[in-house]
Each structure stands twice: as C-alpha cells, then as structure tokens.
Amino acid sequence: MSTSGPDFEDMVNNAPCGYVTLHANGRIAHVNLTLLAWSGHAADQIAGKRFSDLLTMPGRIYYETHIAPLLRMQGFFNEFAIDLVTAAGEPLHMIANANERRDADGKLLLIRLALIKATDRRRYEQELLAGRESAIAAEKATQEVLLLEHETSELREQFIAVLGHDLRNPLASISAGARLLGRTVQSEKEHHIVAMMQTTVMRMAAMIDNVLDFARGRLGGGITLDYDARGPLEPVLAQVIDELRLASPGRVIESEFAIDGPVNCDRTRIGQLLSNLLGNAVTHGAADKPITVRAETQNGSFELWVANAGEAIPQAVMDKLFEPFFRGKARASKQGLGLGLYIASQIAKAHGGALTVASTPAETRFSFSMPLA
Prior knowledge:
Radius of gyration: 23 Å
Helix content: 40-55%
Number of helices: 11
Structural class: alpha+beta
Shape: globular
Strand order of the largest sheet: 2-1-5-4-3
Mean pLDDT: 82
Distance between the termini: 36 Å
Order of helices and strands: HEEHHHEEEHHHHEHEEHHEE
C-alpha cells in the first residue's frame, strides 16, 4: 500500500487514534482530524505550537523532564500516560507512543506521536475481561480456577496502572519542583532539604520500578527488553553513577569504563541493574571507603562489576541474596523492599547473562557478565 496520496492521507486523518507530527524543534507540524475532534481545537490554532503547550501543567512537567529526554536518548518511547487540555479547558487523559525519524547522518527530522483515549483503552480491556468471563461460564468444570485467574489478572492490571501512572506522574512533578527550588535556595538548611527531597524521589522511583518489574514477573509478562546497539552505553552508566553521587553526598564512587565497541542490550535495563547494585553498595558498604564501578568489553562479552569495602557477607545470607523480599542487615532508615538484587539478577538472566557475588573481609563484589553476540 502506498504511503502517499489522498487515500493514505484520508486514512491517517480519520484513523481511530490521534496522530501528531512534530518538527525537529518540537513544534507541531500536523495533527490529524481525530485528535482535533477529541480536543476541540482547530488545526490553525495549534499549528506551530510546542506539543507541551497542549498539556496540563503536571503533564507538561512530566513530558519535558521525563519523556523528552528518554526519547532523545533511545529514539522511541512505548506507552506513556499524558493529559492534554481541550479547547474547553478540560483534561483529556491519553495513552501515547512516540518515535523519532532521523536521516542517514543521524539528524533529527521529525517526531511522531500516536495517542488513544485512556477511556477507550479501559473499555477495550473491560470487553476482553467480559469475554473471558463468558468463557469461564462455558467451562463449568474449571470455573473456579478460571475465575481466580480473571481476578488475579484484573488486580495485576489495576496494580500496574497505579504504579505506572498514579504514582510515577506525581513523583515526576515533585522531582521537577525540587530541581526548580534547588536553583533558588540560598541557605545551607534549604540546600539540605532540597537534597533530601531529591534523594527521596530517587528512592521512590527505584522502588516503583522494582515493584512493577516484580509484579510483571510473578503475575505474567516477565522482564521485557528493548535491544539497541546503536547508541553508546557509557553515558547511561555515567548518568546512573552521577545520580547516586547526588543522592549519597559524602560517599565516594569511583568509575572506570573500557567499552571499545557496541553493546547490544536494553540500555535502560542495564542502567537499572547498575542503579540497584550501587544502591546496595551504598546501603551495606563501609561509609568511609570508596565504591568502585568498572565496565568493559573483552573476549566477546560485556562485564560490569560493583565493589565495596565492609564486612564480608555471611554464607547463610549469600544463599538468599537474589531472592525477592530478602533484606540484609542494615539501618532502619536504609531498609528497602528487598527487591533490588532480585530484579538485577532477573535483568541479567533476560540478557542471557549472569549476576554473581564474591565477598571477603576485604571486598564484596557483584559481577554481571553477558555475551556480546
């Protein structure tokens, strides 16, 4: 089928979902008729505006501070919730996908967004659940088992929806607000309070990611990966280390990278794995000794390890380190959910690699290795 001509243009304009095309500078080039009808805006009223101008204030903060940076980093963003403002000033809850289009030299040409109403998504899911209930009724011999599956599935969807939207969006707004406050504070006490807010936001975001991955893994779905060898991995690792330095003032984190080629992996997931390992080292390592991070490619594999000084891990604890909800001995203020190392090990397995640990009185080292092929 041709991707040009009046027939294709009519199909896009009247598609059941909304389409927005943005210039490389982020300003709107085209909006299809479906989205115009939903929002009540006229095409000439919004052409040339920035996409974020159509969003609610929390949605604008979330898009500019979370979606746009990740989109620039990985070239696409699968399924995020965002709230548009209609011509009448009412919020319109949307589910969106975004991807970039670049030329052969890597220059950004345009950004495309596809949007559907969140209410339509919920209606579709409800229709699927209703169909499942009909099947349960027909299968009387297994009615109780199928009913339990239905209830579990519904609970999973609700649980993941709460984590993915109702918790992450407000957290992103708090994070953006803390960064804005950090530019204006003057006293040492104010700096301390803002730093504490930012640290708490980072801990909460990591907890949400870990719980969400655990829920998907145990209730269906598992750890999903988006492999990409086009971009360098080193900036992702460096950003994670910088965030942990900010969240743990006074702790020394030394890093060394020797990545001499592309690493075909899910860079976001590898960053999450490193963040979990660093968080564990900060919690359980000696506060007066540096934490060391090294990443390298050698002999057809990618190696990443995190080491810290401190007491050796007892063998009884070593046997349970990668189990969910297992928490080693730590100060009450540093206790987490006990999912960080478990999720890290699952990310390692999903990449066809392994996460191991070695601990002596001199050093505790967590090592991740995966084949490059």
